[in-house]
Amino acid sequence: MTENKTIFLVDDDLKLRRLVAKFLVDQGFDIREFPDGSQVAEALREVEPAAVILDIMLPGESGLDILRRIRQQSAVPVIMLTAKGDDEDRITGLELGADDYLPKPFNPRELVARINAVLRRSQPTTRSEAAAGDSIEAGGFVLLHKRRTVCFAGQEVELSATEHRLLEALMSLPGTVLSREALLSYARGKDFGPFDRSIDVHISKLRTKTEQLSGGKRCIKTVWGSGYMFEVDEP
User: Fold this and answer.
1) Signal sequence: where (predicted)?
2) Which of 10, 58, 87, 151 could disulfide-link 34, Cβ–Cβ 3.0 to 4.6 Å?
3) Residue 90 and residue 66 share a domain
4) Over the stretch 32-69, which tens digit does the pLDDT of each residue have?
5) SS3 (DSSP) at 56
6) 3-class DSSP state for residue 203?
């Protein structure tokens, strides 16, 4: 199977967009450029890119609004470009299903590193394939790797790449407390800082999705001072 190298780049800054596009092309990616979000939804219906690079500050519809629409039709990995120090937009983006973020200005090499990281974690891992084939089952939930969804009692919901990796780690070791650092390392490789709190946002999103899916069953437990655990009912 041919590796998908198509990247959607959505940014209204023409100079920056062309600079980033050229750098990504030199790295072997195929780039489709968009000055705003007006054509992104239609383009997604035509082709599923490997990832979307999406600026938050856009003319007309904001990047956050575009992210909402993307998540209505696709679980494609999304990296948000944010203003430096704008924590509120960054957190909102993560809550809406973004997989990563990068504050402006940035080094194009870091963007490539983050693209490669989200692409790696959007694929099923060797450990999960060896341990559970195409799926993992725990506590009545079934995590489907190829579809990147979680199921409960016949109902199904899509996950972002990072949500999938986090739930995979938790469901692979039910009843075991995993530290925030261990979960971040598993979900995002080494591309995080020691004070990165994005793990909490992703866990919150996972809780919302799994509880809505299961009618309120809480499966992800916070163990204060230690980390998180996938809780299963005692037999």
Assistant:
1) none
2) 10
3) yes
4) 999 998 899 889 989 889 999 999 999 889 999 999 98
5) coil
6) helix
